[in-house]
Amino acid sequence: MSDILNKILSVKAQEVASAQAAKPLHAIKAEAQAQTAPRDFVAAIRNKIQAGKSAVITEIKKASPSKGLLRENFNPAEIAQSYAEHGAACLSVLTDEQFFQGNTEYLKQARAACNLPVLRKDFMIDPYQVYEARAMGADAILIIVSAFQTPSPLMGEGRGEGAATFNLTAMQELEQLAHKLSMAVLVEVHDGLELDAALKLTTPLIGINNRNLRTFETHLETTIELLSRIPSDRIVVTESGIHKPEDVALMRNHNVHSFLVGEVFMRAADPGQELARLFG
Ligand SMILES: O=P(O)(O)OC[C@@H](O)[C@@H](O)c1c[nH]c2ccccc12
Fold first, then answer.
1. Kindly report the CA angle at 201 between 191 and 90, in degrees rounded to 5?
2. How far is the CA of 240 from the centre of ligand 1 (A)?
3. What is the structure's pLDDT at 159?
4. Structural domains of the chain, ranges and CATH numbers in brackets
5. pLDDT band at 90 (very low <50, low <70, confident <90, very high)
6. In what helix (H) or strand (E) does residue 104 lie, and over which residues does it extend?
7. Residue 27 Cα to ligand 1 middle (Å)
8. Residues in domain Indole-3-glycerol phosphate synthase (predicted)?
9. Within 6 Å (CB) of ligand 1, which residues are found?
10. Atom of ligand 1 at shortest distance to CA of 260?
11. Across residues 196-208, what is the average pLDDT?
């Protein structure tokens, strides 16, 4: 139970409880419904791909549990503008405070500074957070399948083939609510069992995280290995560990044209210029 993801999830459950105590569900619902219509996250990705380009979801992330502080001079509005100028398809903004030094305000600032659709990057476990996402202006949410693993009574901590099951009903509830609020859903997987569960959702956006959220080890082969199992009507988004033009070429040679990239951009003096350099 001591892996990083489990730690994050237990803190998250407490955060949701206290957020809901401070602002009840009916109040956050009203805020979500008062927002103007979301920007079309899926269309932004499709348009880039149809134009023969890479569709890059550029991330705004101040720190991470594995790497610590990534960027000293952290100005979300400036970063968002720079990404938009240099051809990003969408933004991803971390809102988790405890582990990623994210903030709701960062998402609002970034979104106000450009016209790109914005993903709320957080650990979604409860419908309350979906309303919260829309209330802060988000256009898309992330559903991380491994966060919905139900512990098998037959297994210890590890996970062998066939051992894991996932709370599909809970994932579907979040997806349906996001869609009801006109937001897109990026569903994230790291292995074949998670992929089987993800494919039971209806969203076209399948993220393959090259990083294991339990150990934080990152291997680009994770994407390549799962590709053949994904039907052609879904859009594969390769996530994490993309650092070099060769990494981009590897993915594009395997017909993967959508990317979620954070760290290399955060470490660059000008994140947008780094985007142009990496994908140019
Ligand atoms: O910084 P990187 O290695 O380019 O990765 C970006 C993104 O994929 C990563 O931040 C991420 C992917 N899935 C997540 C889930 C939670 C938090 C973070 C993530």
1. 80
2. 5
3. 52
4. 3-279 (3.20.20.70)
5. very high
6. helix 104-112
7. 31
8. 5-150, 166-277
9. 59, 61, 121, 144, 188, 209, 239-242, 260-263
10. 8
11. 98
